[in-house]
Write a structure and sequence with these properties.
- InterPro entries: BRCT_dom, BRCT_dom_sf, DNA-dir_DNA_pol_X, DNA_pol_B_palm_palm, DNA_pol_lambd_fingers_domain, DNA_pol_lamdba_lyase_dom_sf, DNA_Pol_thumb_sf, DNA_pol_X.
- One of its GO terms (biological process) is double-strand break repair via nonhomologous end joining.
- By secondary structure, this protein is α/β, with parallel strands linked by helices.
- Helices cover 49% and strands 8% of the residues.
- A hairpin with an 8-residue loop joins strand 9 and strand 10.
- The structure holds three DNA strands.
Length: 738
DNA sequence: CGGCAATACTG
DNA sequence: CAGTAT
DNA sequence: GCCG
């Protein structure tokens, strides 16, 4: 369980954070958001801080849970609810009307593509929804803000008051004149919870001033004097360690906070994600000696971890000592599921029981680990080839970036939205390759900081060719895409997408059903011939379509872990998927199960014979959708689970991983799809092969890269070594969102 | 023009 | 084997 | 769809 101290720290962070937010927000409004209220409460009753906070929070959760729980449970009603919208669109369809070409493609589409697309597609909607709530983010009067800021910080450090010297900042803001930086939507505040100290720590220079304000805009706080709680020291002006240390009273750079140069901040801006600080280009020159401190910050400040990190990182490519391997695994485990101590697990379960249903504010539960570790959620540059142009540290211009549109978002947002819809449309057309192309173009566009206006500009971006360039120009100039409007007017698409939203239904099946005359889920449920999985898929259409809040993923995992440990105290697990990549919500729950030195058979036996039956009996596991029944082969369990008291089923995937394959399995199960595909493509270009079991060399390939020989195993257990052997800079999970 | 990741489970 | 899944 |  998180210690009391930590909890208080966390609350403090949120408080300060919101205080700064308010400052960025010019509109005077008295509505105060929850965390602030809680914080205020905590302040007044120091003795009962936690109780007050938790009680208040519990009340909120309960309320939200009830509101959110109106989902019907029975099959028919669920179905009809879903259908409601659809029926309106129910138009006599020319079922066999000539529809595009691309039919040859249809048999080979990659389901993952579509799945991913659907997820992406839901993003704009979510964003839009959360926009209003952003508008009512805390706005309290400055005087109150200052007051509580001082009170707040007094406890942990008397100097803390300088952290949020509001009047000061406010003043400077005015000096900024026209350069107002409204806070970006909460969801995009990737720097939230971080506290920066700049070297030099002033905003005299315009570039630095701009960066500071931009950092605040993205959720960070600026300590304009040294104080406790600083998470990052950001060295500007190309100062080296020696020069930088002169800026401190003690002539020494304090340990503790992560030391980075300003490139780090710039890259965080351009990627809209908290970049890993350990990369060379972020090191302040001459700072080798401080590296370990950085590590410590990045990881979860856990003692054993530091040691492991040390031993591993000393030589990036070290020989695989058993210890090294173990350390790595331990690290992974600790970083993910293992971090959830039993206390937290109990908490999770107790919460669930007492609340009946859950709908937990993820921003809250998430921070539970450490404030300086806020998981970034967003996109990311492509791993290799793309590096040519869009990337590079021309980001030096970042601070000049004009904030046109005022949305505080990527200037190409409009274009991106349209292109994603096109991609979505093509996926509903069964054209996996076009879909892929659109998605890759969007990824490229996401990294662009300037607005791409013309075909010419668009063509300079890798991943965008003639056709897309024209479409982009069309979008920018007339604000829409004729092609897209046509596509969206096509009612078949909606149905196709509706059907493909069913678990275990892909394009061929969906289009066959349409051809058979089905138009609604109800039709299907009653008339179509469905296999068991599809039936379940329809019964829980809404459940499976919903995103899962990060906190809930952790709760599911906690339950699995408890059963796992009960069966075998040495068994371990790691939560993979988008959870491991740091997402605030996930499409499903991916868990790797393994045990030191254990082979697949052992893990499988443990799971199939003990853990899974137990969890099923317990009522946690609801169904098995795809799982090996042969007792002597198979490595996965796909099914659904629900928290006690919750009616919402979640997709749960378990992967049984032999100790020797842990690294490869981690890569596979961490994703995302496109990241894996690019890694694997990269491998195959190097006569290697990467799959969930390991990285292999000397692969012979025939026509069309068809494999002839299996190759010999190079590495399977160590995730980082796989990257190294491939010649790819290691990327932590949260940076694998191409 | 061909390739665009590579594999596991189902029926 | 095609289809769906990851 | 894009790329080589």
């Amino acid at each position: 369980m998180v210690s009391t101290q930590e909890k208080i720290e966390k609350d403090k962070f949120f408080r300060d954070l919101y205080l700064l937010d308010s400052l960025d927000d010019d509109s005077p409004e008295s509505e105060v958001e929850t965390p602030i209220r809680l914080a205020a409460k905590a302040k007044r009753q120091p003795d009962q801080t936690l109780d007050a906070v938790q009680h208040e929070r519990a009340k909120q959760i309960t309320t939200r849970g009830k509101v959110g729980e109106r989902r019907p449970e029975t099959v028919p009603s669920t179905v009809s609810a879903v259908d409601h919208t659809l029926k309106k669109a129910k138009v006599p369809l020319p079922v066999d009307a000539p529809k595009k070409k691309a039919l040859p493609e249809k048999r080979k589409r990659a389901p993952s593509t579509d799945r991913e697309l659907r997820r992406r597609d839901s993003e704009p909607a979510l964003t839009a929804k959360s926009a209003p709530s952003r508008a009512r983010r805390l706005k309290t009067s400055p005087s109150i803000v200052v007051d509580s800021a001082v009170q707040t910080t007094k406890r942990s450090s008397e100097k803390r008051k300088h952290v949020t010297d509001l009047s000061n900042i406010k003043q400077r803001k005015h000096q900024l004149g026209s350069k107002k930086l409204p806070p970006v939507p909460i969801g995009e505040q990737m720097l939230k919870g971080l506290l920066f100290y700049f070297v030099p720590n002033n905003d005299i220079c315009q570039a630095r001033r701009f960066r500071i304000h931009k950092a605040i805009q993205y959720g960070a706080a600026w300590a304009n004097e040294w104080c406790n709680g600083i998470t990052h020291i950001i060295v500007c002006d190309n100062l080296d360690v020696h020069e930088a240390s002169k800026e401190f009273a003690c002539k020494e750079i304090p340990r503790g906070p992560t030391l980075v140069n300003v490139n780090w901040l710039i890259e965080c801006f351009s990627r809209r994600a908290v970049c890993d600080t350990h990369w060379n280009r972020f090191q302040v020159s001459g700072s080798e000696a401080l590296k370990e401190t950085n590590k410590e910050q990045q990881q979860h400040q856990s003692k054993p971890l530091i040691e492991h990190e040390d031993s591993i990182d000393k030589h990036a490519v070290d020989e695989e000592t058993p210890e090294g391997l173990e350390a790595n695994a331990a690290e992974c485990a600790l970083l993910d599921a293992e971090t959830e101590s039993e206390d937290e697990l109990d908490n999770a379960i107790r919460d669930v029981r007492s609340l009946g249903s859950l709908s937990i504010d993820p921003s809250f539960d998430d921070g539970a680990k450490s404030p300086g570790d806020e998981p970034p959620v967003d996109q990311e540059p492509a791993p290799f080839h793309g590096d040519g142009k869009a990337r590079k540290e021309n980001a030096g211009f970042m601070c000049m970036e004009k904030h046109d549109g005022g949305k505080g978002d990527n200037p190409n947002e409009q274009t991106i939205v349209k292109l994603l819809k096109m991609a979505d449309y093509y996926s509903a057309t069964g054209d996996q390759w076009r879909t892929r192309a659109y998605r890759q173009a969007v990824a490229a566009l996401r990294k662009e900081r300037r607005l791409i206006r013309t075909k010419q500009e668009a063509l300079t971006v890798r991943g965008i060719g003639d056709r897309l360039a024209e479409k982009i120009q069309e979008i920018v100039s007339i604000g829409k895409l004729q092609r897209l409007d046509n596509a969206e007017a096509d009612p078949r698409d909606k149905i196709l997408r509706l059907f493909m939203g069913i678990y275990h239904v892909g394009f061929p099946t969906a289009s066959r059903w349409i051809a058979e005359g089905h138009r609604t889920l109800e039709d299907l449920y009653q008339k179509a011939d469905l296999n068991r999985n599809q039936r379940i898929g329809i019964e829980h259409y809404e459940d499976f379509q919903q995103r899962i809040p990060r906190a809930e993923v952790a709760q599911h995992a906690a339950i699995v872990k408890k059963a796992l440990r009960a069966a075998d105290t040495e068994a371990q697990m790691i939560i993979g998927g988008s959870y491991r990549r740091g997402s605030a919500d996930c499409g499903d729950i991916d868990i790797l199960i393994f045990k030191k030195d254990a082979g697949l058979d052992q893990i499988r036996a443990l799971m199939m014979e003990t853990v899974i039956p137990e969890l099923t009996a317990q009522g946690f596991l609801k169904v098995a959708l795809a799982t090996t029944h042969h007792q002597d082969s198979g490595s996965k369990w796909h099914g659904a689970s629900a928290l006690p008291g919750s009616k919402t089923w979640r997709r749960l995937d378990l992967l049984f991983v032999p100790w020797a394959e842990l690294g490869a399995a981690l890569i596979y199960f961490t994703g995302n799809d496109y990241f894996n595909r690019s890694l694997r493509l990269h491998a195959s270009r190097k006569q290697m092969r990467l799959n969930q079991h390991g990285l292999y060399a000397d692969v012979m390939r025939g026509q069309g890269r068809e494999r002839i020989t299996q190759g010999r195993l190079l590495e399977g257990h160590d995730e980082k070594r796989i990257f190294e052997i491939l010649g790819v800079t290691y990327r932590p999970p949260e940076h694998r969102n191409p």
